[in-house]
Write a structure and sequence with these properties.
The chain is an alpha+beta fold and 116 residues long. Helix content is 25%, strand content 7%. Strands 1-2 form a two-stranded antiparallel sheet. The longest helix has 20 residues, at 2-21.
Length: 116
């Protein structure tokens, strides 16, 4: 029974994530779907529109397309230690990168639904 509730909760959260991410906003960077280091991870610039570009670029992330995915330090461990996304997603400034997997990890199969 617990497994069923957990699975249904995950399915619901993924559904909510798709609805939230469905808006395609090319202004200010738009939606990024990472294929590296893990496929099916999304980042939505629109959800970060209250920030200035310089809050993240170029200190936390290079602005060149694809450079973040190529960075060997772009890992969950590094994020949990306050690097990259974890600089803000620490549980105080914004939701923690720990135990909030489906907020960003929607899975490789589900990324095709973002294009619809």
């Amino acid at each position: 029974m617990k497994k069923t509730i957990i699975v249904l909760s995950i399915v619901f959260l993924v559904f909510v994530a798709f609805n939230c991410l469905a808006a395609d906003d090319d202004e200010g960077g738009g939606l990024i779907v990472f294929e590296k280091p893990v496929a099916g991870v999304v980042f939505d610039h629109a959800k970060h529109s209250d920030l200035d570009c310089s809050d993240c670029h170029d200190d936390l992330f290079e602005q060149d397309a694809g450079s973040t995915a190529e960075n060997k330090d772009f890992t969950m461990k590094a994020m949990e230690e306050g690097e990259t996304c974890g600089a803000c997603h620490d549980g105080d400034t914004a939701f923690s990168v720990k135990k909030n997997c489906v907020k960003c990890h929607i899975g490789k199969m589900n990324t095709s639904k973002l294009e619809q």
